[in-house]
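User: Show me a protein chain along with its predicted structure.
Assistant: Here is one chain, sequence first, then structure tokens.
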Amino acid sequence: MTDLTTLGIAEAGRLMARGEITSVALTEAFLKRIEAVDSKVHSYITVTADVARLAAQQADMEMRGGFWRGPLHGIPVALKDIYETAGIRTTGHSHLKADYVPSIDAETVRRLKAGGAVLLGKLGTHEFANGAMTADQPFPAVLNPWTLKHQPGGSSSGSGAAVAAALCMGAMGSDTGGSIRNPAGYCGVAGIKPTYGLVSRCGIFPLAFSLDTAGPMAWTVEDCALMLDVLAGHDPNDQASAKVAKVDYGAAAQRPIKGMRIALARSWYERDDASITPETKKGIDEAVRVFKDLGAIVEDVVFPDLWGYHVCGRIIISVEAHAIHRRDIIERPEKFGYTTRRRFQIGAFFSAEQYLSALRLRRQLHQETRAAMRGYDLVMMASQWGPPEPADEAPAIFHFLSKPSLTMPFNVTGQPALALCCGYGSDGLPLSIQLGGRAFDEASVFAAGAAYERATGWRSRRPAL
């Protein structure tokens, strides 16, 4: 049998259902691998070995008795360390929360546990899902498992790295301006930012209330769909939570995509002021060919300028993040990492008029994006401009001033967006595309992404640690 840690969630679930493997064996394999290789990657802040072993034993006992909780029953997962966990410290990768132990679980954690998932531990993140990983923070910076010489992207850094390095089967991230899709792209895994309001944020450290979105990351698109099956649903304790009909995302990942219409947002990533690398462009062009071979219709469509989404999102994030952290920034600035502190402080310099103008622009961009998508099921584009920064390079305090973010459009509009691997560059690092869908139509996003993965061989390649 193949190494248990390289199984996907769907495949492991089928094997457990047939009694060919156990959750205990699966969990022990991951705990052993974490002990052996995570000292190189630094993806975990806290490993909950005892908690995981007890949950795995319970899962096996339940499945032997004929009780099946769903697609995550007995599956080892991990959490970005901004998800509150009862009795387990939740640090936000910050000195301010280094010893914080919540008394209750975040709603998403409760749903994962109710679905039978096994919690392996808590994962590294950019401080409070902002800033960057720097030497003045309490935990080591997470490294990209493909080279260990590059950053993994953020802010869900540990989530992307742990999934890629086969240190968990699935992980939870959060996405306010691309923080699921950036590490998913740089680490060569699948990660989805669901529609704003589809997944509860209750019990997750906030960054910007009007943009924060929680979502899963996994090795395959199908595995992300199975995780979202457990996570999605209304939560009355989250004021932004939406009431929508239940969807079987796992089944949607098996749908054919013949006749699906995809709008290629080439104007977003091939620009006069910025452009993706030639290898990334080649990967996207080849992905277009694959989608056409699968029966989809792919056409170039012009969308509003990328800088508009970028500026709009950055103003909203800066102002709302400063409002959340204002007291600590004033009273205990030395407790923050230098880069995090500066990024939170910039929010104090925007006026109420500028913030309201950004909110009005957001509405306009939302309407114009919907109009550009009329007649199309999905938008396709690049996930990032090129490879990640070297791990030893000092992070730019205001990195967002150089190029517009390729992930921000779908945060501004609230639409679902998936990052998935579309090949590898000559440096061995993954390439990635984005698929954006209409609001609450994650089913079409999963259908296209999973069909693409089945038609290509990218999921057979893993980082060598």
